[in-house]
Amino acid sequence: MTEEIIIAGFGGQGVLSMGMILCYAGMMENKEVSWMPSYGPEMRGGTANCITIISDSKISSPIISRFDTVIALNQPSVDKFENSVKPGGLIIYESTNVINPPTRNDIQIIGIAASSEAAKMKNTKILNMIMLGAFLKKKPIIGMDNILKGLKQVLPERYHNLIPLNEEAIKKGSELVGEVEVSA
Amino acid sequence: MLRLFMKGNEAAVYGAILGGCRAYYGYPITPASEIAETAAKYFPQVGGTFLQAESEVAAINMVYGAASTGQRVMTASSGPGLSLKQEGISYSAGSELPLVVVDVMRGGPGLGNIAPEQGDYNQIVKGGGHGNYRVIVLAPNCVQEMCDLTKAAFELADKYRNPVIVLTDGFVGQMMEPVVLPEPITEFQEKPWVVDGTVKTVNNLISSIELEPEDLERHNIKLQKKYKTISENEVRYEELYTEDAEVILMGYGIVSRVLQSVVDEARSEGLPVGLLRPVTLFPFPTNKIQELSRTAKLFFVSEMSNGQMFDDVRLALEGKSPAKFFGHMGGVVPTTEEILEQLKMIFNELKE
């Protein structure tokens, strides 16, 4: 198993930490992992992304340009990375932020209204966890118990009281996939 | 085996501390800043010193001073900062001081940008400062090696009384991968040459000045002998599928990771391709290149620069084998796909 993912969105949407959680969780399962961020000015408010690779074997290049999964949290990310999904791959996009959804017919396309769901749950910062839940529902590459352990590693200790909320958000994301699935 | 997940920049600090380094003087710069940040956190915890200097020039001269007392000491920066430090590095080479500098390369020239590049090769490997000197240059290509090679850098620096530079790029510095921490170094060589304020060292002198031309020439000849010994004993490289390869790919640092993917893909398509990755850039694996040139038909070098290491590959080949270069500058990364495309063209030409 090798899953090559890019997670992209606005700085502050939790793009980088989503990738980190997947990596920490992957390590708990003795997988090889790599996390390559876009760094610099974009971290301070522009668009940010990270390439995350989880694999059962040694990872050659951590820099890749074709992905099994694209997780896009805003319109610029959909525009930029839709064509980078491998044929038969998956794109999950945040549907309240994205006006022009992906259109390719050789990939799976899933829109998740994570932003409005997060607002319903009264914490807009859990948007990324809803998206993560949706991804793991489609591609259960890592056990949920290890994802939660990964979350504990990434979330600063002062926010550990929010772990149950984050867990709920992951579950929510997973449920939403069943409701809205749009297969190509 | 416990695996920690960290950035390359953090791993360099772990490697330094495990390598016995207890003093850090630096000035932050993207994409190397996490080295200073991590050093500020951990050096005081192990009884060491962390000091943010007022400039890169001040930092390298503090490193010079600490090295003179026998401390294992380091600094880190990126291209523009390394340009500033070159004077201090030349002085350290002249005074034969063991110290370690990490260069996390970014785009240049000038202010350039903060994207990863490999345009510092010439200034680091060929000696960007003045004089007939060389520094040992180690080029990690993953986070584990950022730790292991930084640790090794301190051993090499002490062994040869010479500056060692860990040459890496923004990608390796910023990316996160699992790391298994190596064993710490616990045995250290005596350094009878130091100046540490004790009676024992009162007659020692740390200096790079030699006013008489004959004396300075003798000093230079001694240095050149040392560099020759280093060239004979410290070459490190990694090779992959080179035995039956018709085309040898060469690249260092992050580019070598891309080339690993290229080799995997090319082999799966039946193309006889191998990889030779220099781990030390000085000393350069000249003999290995010459050995492979007896069986390979062509060398293909890729860098995130205008082909600075390519020059050294061609020097090693002495015109006996053809070599091609493919690179990008400014922070653009060569992709697996475009290199594969180049290789297919090369194999078509080789057939004709």
Can I get a quick summary?
The complex is a heterodimer of chains A (184) and B (352). By secondary structure, chain A is an alpha/beta fold. Chain A is 38% helix and 24% strand.
Describe the structure.
The complex is a heterodimer of chains A (184) and B (352). Chain A has one domain (2-180): Pyruvate-ferredoxin Oxidoreductase, domain 3 (3-Layer(aba) Sandwich), CATH 3.40.920.10. Helices cover 38% and strands 24% of the residues of chain A. Chain A is built from six helices and six strands. Chain A has helices at 15-28, 75-81, 114-120, 127-138, 144-154, 163-180; strands at residues 2-10, 32-37, 47-55, 67-72, 85-94, 108-112. The mean pLDDT of chain A is 92. Chain B has 352 residues and is an alpha/beta fold. Chain B has two domains: 4-233, Thiamin diphosphate (ThDP)-binding fold, Pyr/PP domains (Rossmann fold, 3-Layer(aba) Sandwich), CATH 3.40.50.970; 238-351, Rossmann fold (3-Layer(aba) Sandwich), CATH 3.40.50. Chain B has twelve helices and 14 strands. Chain B has helices at 8-18, 33-42, 56-68, 79-94, 121-125, 143-160, 170-174, 213-233, 254-268, 286-293, 308-317, 336-351; strands spanning 4-7, 23-26, 49-52, 73-77, 99-105, 136-138, 163-169, 176-179, 237-240, 247-250, 273-278, 280-282, 298-303, 323-327. In chain B, the strands form three sheets. Chain B has a seven-stranded mixed β-sheet with strand order 3-2-4-5-7-6-12, with helices on both faces. In chain B, strands 9-11-10-13-14 form a five-stranded mixed β-sheet, sandwiched between helices. In chain B, α1 (8-18) packs across α2 and α3 packs parallel to α4. The A-B interface holds A 20, 23-24, 27, 32-37, 39-41, 59-66, 153 and B 3, 5, 30-31, 114-115, 170-171, 174-178, 254, 257-258, 260-261, 264, 333, 335-337.
